[in-house]
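hey can u check if this looks right to u? its 273 residues, i copy pasted from the old doc so theres a chance i mangled smth
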Amino acid sequence: MPAPAHLDWLVNTGNTITTADGYNVELWELNHAGDAAVLSAWAKHFREHYCDDEMLPELAHGTGLSHGEFLTQMKFPDSAPGMGPGVRSGDFAEIIVADYIEYKLGYWCPRRLRYDFKWNRDESTKGCDVVGFKFQQDGAVSPQDELFVFESKAQLALNGQPQNRLQDAIDDSNKDKLREAMTLSALKQRFLERRDRASADKVERFQQETDRPFKRISGAAAVHDVTTFDPAHIAAVTTAGHFNAPNLKLIVVTGAAMMQLVHALYQRAVDEA
C-alpha cells in the first residue's frame, strides 16, 4: 500500500542529538501545509482509526445523530478543556509514530484496532502504544523476525514549561516488557473476532519467544510543537536501566502550530464524514 500523502510532510532533518549515555536521537520535522486534498485524505486516514467509514452509517443509525455528530459525541476525544485535548494530542502522537514505523521503516503496523473500541472517548487506550511486525519471509518463522514496540509522548502546546517528553517515553517504554504479552493477546483477539485468522496468526508468531525466538526492538518518541521543544532536555535523557537498552530507537518529531493542526484534523474528519 502506498504511503499516505501527508507522510511527505514528515521529514528526517538528518540531524541528531547525542544523549549523555551515547544514544543518537533522530530529529524529524512535520512540515504540514494548507493543501486541502492532502488534509482531506489525512482526515479520512485519521477518522478510520476510530471507525471504519463503511461502518459509520450503521453505528450512527438509530442514535438520532448525523455521522459528524456521532463521531463528535461518541468516538473522538473532546475538544473542550479537560481530559479530551490531552487524549487528542496523545492519540495524534501515537498515530503519527505508527505512520512512521509503517511507511518510513516498513513494518506491518495494525493500529486501528487500538482506537475503535474505546469505552471512554476521553481516555487513552491501555497497553503498548504502537506495535510493529516485520517478517523475513511470509508464512515462515525466522529468528530474524522483528517485534518493534514504540512508546510515544506529546507536548503540542506550551502550557507552562517545556517538558522532557522523550524521557517520559523512555521510562514508559521500560514497562513494555510487562505489557507486551497482554497487548499481543488483545490484538490477536480483535483479529479473531473479525474472523481474520491470517492476521491473528502473524501476531501469534510473537507470543512464545522461547520456542520461536525473534528480535525485539524498543522505541521511544517525543512529539513536540516547536514552542515546547528543548534540545537540552533531549541531551539530558538517560536510558539507564531500560530492559532493552541495546535495541532502543529514539526519535523526536517537531512541528509548528501542532495543537491547531490536531484540532483541525478532527474537525475536518467530522465535517467530511
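The chain has a mean pLDDT of 94.
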